[in-house]
Predict the 3D structure of the following.
Amino acid sequence: MRETTFGLFMIAMGMLIPGCTNNKEELLYAQPCDTSAVTYSAVIQPILRENCYSCHSTGSSTVPFDLNTYSLVRTRAANGSLWGSVSHNGTFIAMPQNAPKLSDCNLAKIKKWLNDGFPNN
């Protein structure tokens, strides 16, 4: 009886253990997210350039505002629409539109910059 119970236990563990792995590439090869030195020019602007400028920049007629200067980004940061959009919180249109949500690390960097008072540094 003990051998049967032990055998069933081992079979159950063999079925459960593979379920404990995570094969998401971003988690397997994730680098730590450094939010210690978040500046507008070195961190925030590149995130916006990579993910937002294709629609939100001078010359784009598809949106009512652009984000290609600090003062324009600051306006969106101050009124809450920047975070509301990129965090997909349901209050604003989720951005980037028709694209995946920004990475958790990029969101953490934006949040840090916002919490620091969105300095122009």
User: Anything to note?
Assistant: The mean pLDDT is 83. The radius of gyration is 22 Å.
